[in-house]
Amino acid sequence: MDRGRVRRLAEDLAEQGAPPLVQALEKIVGLRVIEATPTAFTLSLFAAYTEAEGYLAQRVRRRVQRVSEASAKLMDGRQNWKRGEDASTVSPRTFDA
């Protein structure tokens, strides 16, 4: 196992995976529809928009959480592997032919 590669993967996931999702979430939440003279039609559209916005924001938040969890699990796996190698009683032996 290449622990350095796993560490880089975990770091890249945290640094490059989550920020675009957080930026998307900020843009979604930042969108607002304002009507100068609300009508029954615009009010129903506003209600639908609000529900859709909430649903999408929730999905993006879950994705951010999953990216963070995946990164943490990669780091935990890397550390566990290293502890296992350090605790191993088996060492490589060279044989003279």
Question: Could you characterize the architecture of this molecule?
Answer:
The protein has helices at residues 3-30, 40-87. The protein is an all-alpha fold and 97 residues long. The chain has one domain (3-82). Helix 1 runs antiparallel to helix 2 (40-87). The protein starts with a helix and ends in a 10-residue tail after the last helix.
- SSE-based structural type: mainly alpha
Helix content bin: over 70%
How many strand segments? 0
Shape estimate: rod-shaped
Write down the secondary-structure element order.
HH
Low-confidence stretches: none
How would a crystallographer describe the biggest sheet? none
Distance between the termini: 29 Å
Beta-strand portion reads under 5%
Instruction: Summarize model confidence as the mean pLDDT.
Output: 78
Radius of gyration, taken over Cα atoms and rounded to an integer in Å: 24 Å
How many individual domains? 1
Q: How many H/I helices? A: 2
